[in-house]
Amino acid sequence: MRIALGQLESGSDIHANLAAIDRYAAQAAADGAALVAFPEYATYEKKKVDATFPKVAEPLDGPVCQELADIARRHRIALVAGVVETSDEPGRAYNTLVAFGPDGDRLASYRKIHLFDAQGFGESTFIKPGPSTAPVVFEIGGVRFGLMTCYDLRFPELARSLADADAQVLLVCSSWVPGEHKTEQWLALNAARAIENSVYVAGVSQTPPVSVGRSVLVDPMGVVEADLGLEPGVRVVDVSLKTVERVRESFPMFRQRRL
């Protein structure tokens, strides 16, 4: 299967962000991708999460998600993107990934459970953690995709639960905050989650200055098969279920583990 990584430079102009998503989805579909993944906060992003995030939040049947569904339908491609979703708590929203099929139907949604309260950031001030830790997996073309968001990458239990739910590709949609050794950690953690679960990891990130860029596809052996660098763009890559099966047979960790 061919999938695409859509590396964005999202800002606070929702219409401009949606236009970029539309443009990259069209390019990905033209290049033969069955799915395109975009970063966390794809439709609304700033240097730091602030009080404007809950103000712009919408329900998953609101105009922003309707436009994402229209983009998927128009280009006949599955689409995953980060949105700001309303919650039942005033002043706080959900940081949510939403997946649409090529017919525009919503396939899955995942509310980020590990909020980034580190490096002087306080995401939880304005964002509410998802109430469920259940793995969120959906299927396109016989391939099962699992959803994770940014800081989740540092918590290997979530990746393992997705692999246990038969995910073969993990979509790690992120806006990885820059800092000392942060790019190195981003690359290392994507590779670690791939190796320890015998899965592909598609880590899709926002670009500098908000984030570090370097969206990657890592294969189940930990090999980086694509790296988008620092600029906005879209890259089509291949994932192979035969590769997943071969690696899991060579390293039968799921049969051997004792915990």
Number of helices: 7
Globally, the shape reads globular
Radius of gyration: 17 Å
Q: What top-tier CATH class fits best?
A: Alpha Beta
Low-confidence stretches: none
Q: Describe the main β-sheet briefly.
A: 6 strands, mixed
Number of strands: 12
CATH domain fold name: Nitrilase/N-carbamoyl-D-aminoacid amidohydrolase
Mean pLDDT: 97
State the secondary-structure class: alpha/beta
What is the N-to-C succession of helices and strands? EHEHHEEEEEHEHEEEEHH
Task: State the CATH superfamily name.
Answer: Carbon-nitrogen hydrolase
Report on the architecture of this protein.
It is a single chain. Helices cover 29% and strands 26% of the residues. The protein is α/β, with parallel strands linked by helices and 259 residues long. The chain has a single domain (2-251), classed as Nitrilase/N-carbamoyl-D-aminoacid amidohydrolase, CATH 3.60.110. The strands form two sheets. A six-stranded mixed β-sheet has the order 5-4-3-2-1-12. It has a six-stranded mixed β-sheet with strand order 6-7-8-9-10-11, covered by helices on one side. Helix 1 runs parallel beside helix 3.
